[in-house]
Amino acid sequence: MAERKPDWLKVKAFGGNNFNDVSALLKDLGLNTVCQAANCPNRGECFNRRTATFLIMGPVCCRNCRFCNIDTGRPEPLNDEEPERVALAAERLKLRHVVVTSVTRDDLPDGGAAHFAETVRRIRRRLPECKIELLTPDFRDVPDALDIVMAAEPDIFNHNLETVPRLYPKVRPGADYNRSLKLLKRAYDKFKAVTKSGLMVGVGEERDELRQVFADLAEHHVSILTIGQYLAPSPKHLPVARFVPPDEFKEYADEAKKAGLKKVFSAPLVRSSYMADVVFSQ
């Protein structure tokens, strides 16, 4: 069990005009964000930058990852109006880089691939110059799911490994490390996509295990990586094993780049979609 949260992980209280405006817009359009559902510590900063990561396909996930704050249960049917509402929100926020993610929908025949694709198309109609980043689940080997998503031509395909393979049974039991790597590789091999992934540290991983993950990502042609500190959303979730000091995050970034990753954003409060526009443009 980790000690008390250190000072470098403390964030300012949420608030401000932009924060309130973004919150009101999302509520008005009936949209979910991972910022709110996952209780992200950067929500105040991002909303005040007038950005948000849209969470599509409802607020309920089919899987029960021990690190995640999103509700688990039986999801409701898809809302056909949601893609257009996401596009409208992106337009009203004047976004130049939109990040769209989702809960995992193992209950759907295509895993929600068509819903992702339609969301991309709707955003393109309203914001043709906007960069679109998708952070998808693994689709659990649903045939053609990736093809359906990539046919809409998102600019960045993001899929998080989250942790080292040894910890998958404890951290994300419904997922498979090699399946995720294959998904990322196929996005690059077949569609020449810019691919991205994310890791959280402080859940019990060893340094050598992280180095192997960096090598695996590079071997599978992933070019962008985010690394951040895991924070337990509640006492019921997976406990933090260690608070990683800021200097160590800098070392991770150096090691990941040496392994072959082109862009690495590594710091305690970094999350997969945090400052995504800045990371992409570096």
Which SSEs are present, and which pair or pack?
Layout lengths: L16 H13 L2 E2 H4 L5 H6 L4 E4 L3 E2 L9 E2 L9 H11 L4 E6 L10 H14 L4 E5 L9 H6 L5 E3 L9 H4 L5 H15 L2 E8 L5 H13 L4 E6 L16 H14 L3 E4 L9 H6 L1
Parallel strand pairs: 2-5, 3-4, 5-6, 6-7, 7-8, 8-9, 9-10
Antiparallel strand pairs: 1-2
Describe the structure.
The protein has one domain: TIM Barrel. About 40% of the residues lie in helices and about 15% in strands. The strands form two sheets. Strands 1-2-5-6-7-8-9-10 form an eight-stranded mixed beta sheet. A two-stranded parallel ribbon has the order 3-4. Helix 4 packs parallel to helix 5 and helix 9 packs parallel to helix 10. The longest helix is centred in the middle third of the chain and has 15 residues. It is globular. The chain starts with 16 loop residues before the first helix and ends with a helix. The relative contact order is 0.13.
Q: Name the CATH architecture.
A: Alpha-Beta Barrel
The succession of helices and strands, N to C, reads: HEHHEEEHEHEHEHHEHEHEH
Structural class determined from secondary elements: alpha/beta
Into which percent range does the helicity of residues fall? 25-40%
What is the general shape? globular
Give the gist of this structure.
The protein is built from eleven helices and ten strands. The chain has helices at 17-29, 34-37, 43-48, 82-92, 113-126, 145-150, 168-171, 177-191, 207-219, 246-259, 276-281; strands at residues 32-33, 53-56, 60-61, 71-72, 97-102, 131-135, 156-158, 194-201, 224-229, 263-266. The radius of gyration is 18 Å and the shape is globular.
